[in-house]
Every structure is written in C-alpha cells, then in structure tokens.
Specification:
This protein is an all-alpha fold. The protein is built from 18 helices and no strands. The chain has helices spanning 8-34, 37-67, 75-99, 101-107, 113-118, 120-139, 143-166, 173-194, 209-230, 233-241, 243-279, 283-316, 328-338, 342-345, 348-352, 357-381, 389-410, 420-435.
Amino acid sequence: MVRLSEHIGTIGWAFAGRLLFVGYGFVMLLQIAVVPPEEYGLYALLVNVQTWIFILSDSSALLGLVQFGADVRERARLNTLVGMLHSGIVLGIAGLLWLVRAPLAQVFQEPRITVALGALPLYCLLSIPRSYCVKLLYRELQMRKVFALDLSWLGVMTVLTLWMVWRRELRGFPELLLIACTGMGVSSLYGVWLCRPWLQFGLRGSITLRQILRFTLPQTLASALHTGVRQLDVYAVQYFFGLKVVGVYQAAKTFYRVFDTVFDAVAGLLHPAAVRLLAAGEREQLRILLGKMLSALSFTIAGIVLLIELGGAELLLPPLLAREYEPAVDYFKLLSLGALGVPFAVLGPAILALGRSRQMLLHIAVATGVAAGTLLLAGLVGNPLFSALGVAVYTLVLGALNFRFVRQAYGLSWSELLRFPRDLRGLVQFIRSERT
C-alpha cells in the first residue's frame, strides 16, 4: 500500500526546492521595483522564449533519460544520445531565432526584440549542462541534490540582485541579463560536479535515437503547444499592447509562479514514479498514489485561490509593487482562477507513463486552441487585462480533459477527491508516533 509517510524525505526536498522558487519571486519583485516596465518586459521576452526552448527540448530529448533509463546497461549510450539531441535542439532553435531576429522585430513592431533575441544563444548555451543534470537527478530521485542545484542558481542571482540594487546599478535589461547568465553558468558547473556518479557516456548498447524520438515526438509537439501558452503568450501581449503591458503582465505571472512551481514539482516527481510502478506491475498502487496527490492538491489550491479572490490579493500585493506595476494585481486574480485546474492538469505524466503520448497531444491541442482564441479575442477587444484569461482557460480545459482520461484509465472515483482530510490525519499521527 502506498503511504505518504514512506516518501516524506523525497517529497520534503521537492517541496523545499519549490519554496526556493517561491522565495526567489520576492527577489524578482525587488528587480521589478527598480526596473521600468518596458525594460522588464524586454527581459521577459528573452527569459520566456528561453524557457520555451528548454521545455521543448526536455520533452523531445531529456524525457528519454527517465523513460528509458530503467535499464542500467543502456545508460551510458542513452546519456550520450540524449545529450547530443538536447544540445542540438536547444542551439538549433536559439540559432534560428537569432538569425531571424530582425524580421521578428518588424512583425511585432518592437525594434528592441533584436536585443533580446541577440542574447538568446549565449543564455541557452550556459543553460544546457544545468538542465541535463536536473533531469539526471530526477531520474535517480535525488531530490536533495536537485535542491542544492537550484539553490546554487537562485542563490547566485539573489546575491547579484541585492548587490546591484545596493549599488544602484540595476537599471534595465543589460543588468538583468548579466544576473541571469551568471547564475545559470555557476549552476551548470555545480550540476556537472553533483552528477559525477551518473555522467556515464559511451556508445555500447542497443537503444537508438529512433526509439527515443518515436516515444518523444508526440510529446514534443504537445510541449510546443503547452509551453506556447504558458511562456510565449507575452509575445501576443507585446503584439497587441506593447512592452509596458508585457512588463506588468510578467509581474502578475511572478506571483502566479507559486502555482507554476507546484505544477512543475509534481509533474517532475510523478512521471518517474509512474513509470517505475507500472514497470513493476503495481498499477493499483499508482492509482492510490494518484488519488492521494489529486485530493491533496485540490484542497490546498482551492483554499489558496479562495483567499486570493476574497481580498487577499488586494491586501498583500500592492505594498510589494511599484506604482507602475499595481495593475498586475488584477491580472494575477484572473490567472489564479485557472489555478483551480492545476491538480487535474498535472495528471499528464500519468497518461504519458502508459505510453499514450498521442492522447496527451490531443488534450493539449484542444486546450491550446481554446486559449489561443481567448488571447485573440482579448487583443481584438482591446482590453489587456483579458490577456490573463489565456493561461487560465488553458489550464482549466487541460485539467478537465486529463482528469476524464485518468478516471477511465486508472479507475479513479470522484470520492478520491475528498480523501485528503483522512490522509492528513494519518500523516499527523505518523509524525507524532515518530517523535515518541
């Protein structure tokens, strides 16, 4: 039987790692306080497209480290093939965007897009080792090391931000770029050192690049759509409303990172766990685990969203924002409504573990289509606030589709959504017994 108490260590370090990102959100607010919205908007265009590229490569290349990594005899060859594929995808897309940066600037009617995309290849190059090492650590369920790796990245950027703010040198995009590149470079070097035991490379083995791509290609298309809504929506905002609105919207998404980090943490843990349980023939144990996770997330997120919508946002957020960014509160409230779909949307890895990547692609395509229509409507109406509904609608639609499929595939019942109070009591009793 699956017991949450048996996984407290892994879950605890994963949760602590996500808290790092939540904490860094306050550092980002400090950056926002001293950087004009236009400058922060330009930085958002760089960071969001870099994130999109790496999530795309994660699904097309790095996902193979987990999916095919159970066979220890194949790991050296697998590590080599995935490393080559990962580097090729990242640098290929970044290089292409660098080449077409001038035409894109004309399309989006913003000349400074050439500045953001001009820095993209270097930023991506510095990011490759870190992203590869993070996936290796997830495969080995080394969550303590993932925490240390994230701490090195966010810690360096925090120190640099505080130093520049204290010296009054943090003024715009160039300084933000320096902070990002330095943090990423240091974290990549530390990641290589942490992953020494698992950085085995060679060509012996039977797994082929074709096998990896056959599994990952549908997921790659899915990720291109999925992250297109979550990351590249800032380009739609830029097209309709300009860099200043992008900066304000990105500030709202900074607050929303609380929900994004929950999504990423659970998805990162769920996929390797689901693959291992299914490989061991423990389908029923996976069903129980999914029920526990779904109920815990649903209760927690629903409570947070309720507090936000009942006045918590207006009470807590304005003191953290400069006057130019105060409209971000309204954007954040709309984004938060979509967070109600996060517990269900995060069930995607359980679908992938069954090898149903095409089914997942269908869900994401439908949700993306609805979200794109919402963004287009916001632009045509001319109300920038409605731009936040794109991410919100996408998450809700994806969650509904994923939950419908998982209920049928694993036999989850609606009553599973209400089990969290019972599970919480059991966890409290376990902690008390351990102390005594």
